[in-house]
Design a protein that fits this description.
Elements lengths: L1 H12 L15 E3 L5 E3 L3 E2 L4 E6 L2 E6 L1 H7 L2 E5 L6 E2 L4 E7 L3 E5 L4 E6 L2 H4 L3 H4 L8 E5 L11 H14 L1
Antiparallel strand pairs: 1-2, 3-4, 4-5, 5-11, 6-8, 7-10, 8-9, 10-11
């Protein structure tokens, strides 16, 4: 099972998919020594959430590195639409076969959309953390908060150092 999840995650990172029509939507990526994909063009928090900011909308999810450490995700708790999220505060939880982890908001704002697919298919976080496994879309209340987040190179280094420390 773990090998199949790793293979699925790796295939996803390498864009080995029958749905090639989506591949033009993904930014470039890099692979760290632990084989987790880190996409360029996204911002990352040290709590392992990612943010994709497009216009007035910021999409938030957990990184491939985070889902890899969690293991098979079996349940996701997310906020309601129109609720507020606050930078560095909990907005939900991810339950895996290993543990339950809080999801920390990397920015503040109003939730404008929740990925309802995760209620029935929480494993999308494992198989597609940057596409189908996104969690919420937020209208940022302070877009300057994005500047405090890491870019892909900084996040890759952060993950490598964190893994080496454990």
């Amino acid at each position: 099972m773990a090998l199949r999840m790793w293979a699925s995650s790796t295939a996803n990172a390498l864009k080995l998919s029958s749905s090639a029509s989506k591949s033009h939507l993904l930014p470039a990526f890099s692979i760290s020594r632990c084989f987790s994909s880190v996409l360029e063009g996204l911002k990352y928090a040290n709590s392992h959430e990612w943010v994709k900011h497009e216009g007035s909308v910021a999409t938030i999810g957990i990184s491939d590195h985070a889902q890899d450490h969690l293991g098979e995700v079996v349940f996701v708790e997310l906020p309601e639409e129109k609720s507020a999220v606050t930078k560095e505060k909990n907005f939900g939880a991810v339950e895996s076969v290993k543990a339950t982890s809080e999801i920390i908001s990397p920015i503040s704002g109003e939730v404008i959309e929740v990925n309802t697919k995760l209620a029935d298919s929480p494993g999308l976080i494992n198989s597609s953390p940057y596409e189908d496994g996104w969690m919420i879309k937020v209208k940022p209340s302070n877009p300057a908060e994005l500047e405090s987040l890491m870019g892909s190179k900084e996040y890759t280094k952060f993950c490598e150092e964190e893994d080496a420390a454990h």
